[in-house]
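Side project, low priority. Logging it here so it doesn't get lost.
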Amino acid sequence: MSRGERVARLEQLVALRNSISAEITDEVRALAREEVEARAGQLDAGLVGPEQIESAVVGQVAAALGMSPTRGREQLRIARDLHAGLDRVRELYSAGELDERKVAAIVTAASWLDGPERARLDAELTTHRISRLGLRRVGDLARSIAARISPEKFAERATAARRGRYVSVTPAGDGMAWLRALLPAEQAIRCFGALHKAVQAEFVGPGPVTRGRSQILADTLVERLTGAPATTTDVEVQVLVPLEALVDDDGPLPAEIPGFGPVPAGLLTGDGRRTWRRLVTKEGLVIGGDSRRRTFRGPLAHMIRIRDGGRCTAPHCDAPIRHLDHVHRWADGGATRFDNGRGLCEFHNLVREIPDPDPPG
């Protein structure tokens, strides 16, 4: 196969992949419509509400596609909105000219518009060669058109968005973590500018520069948030330490920070006051106890969260644990003990309680 034929083959495969993604989106919509119809009687009888029906659909979509509820909800939203004014975008998607990420960016940009407004965005957006544009440019173009179509709604949305500012931390692997902040744009720019001033001060200072620009930015952030040098932060961290690591400092088994993954045991040292709460493990050995209580509390709840790594145990989900649930239901005789407990996110704990429209038997 020549180079040109290889390139053509890749282009065909990409178009096929996009078309299959579009077909999956259509199936998601069909599944949602069938589920709503199946639960119409429950809704009329007041047994379930619209939010519960949506959660049941999201749960089915996420399980079928092998993804988290958050991504399952996104898939459901895309499937719904593509049939609510974005006809031309949907046609390009089915033809394989747009990939799933670009379609998701367009749907997000149009999510706050009504049907006629979304149709206007669809018509104007597809006058551009969006299949040739990068993901960021497609998203920026769609947001700009949406803001032009409905400036009043855009202003209200921008004002409301400021109330959603937050800070989060998520694992990044190799003993690292992402610290993210969602801020009003001008505040984020001011913060980043202040950090860059620290870099400039370091480079023009009299001493030797031993760190790179990114390292100085990161260290300055830590120092200004904690009020102490980046290497002397006081912290208490729970660490799972294999028994073998206690016996042999040079052993291959790493320690693990629950929810953040493995970290070399040799890095658990440093200046400052650090309290490492070590929880010794041996080939998955866990410690638990029985309880007559209905809810998981105290040390029992603490150990379940540690065992489950702080993440939801439902398939395909890695959301933080919000609830502790019985594997074998309490109502069915399940005991409140360590081996019958599991950590779940709020979604998976609540969706379990939604009644089945077609119960067995």
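Brief comment: The first strand starts at residue 166 and ends at 173.
Revisit when time allows.
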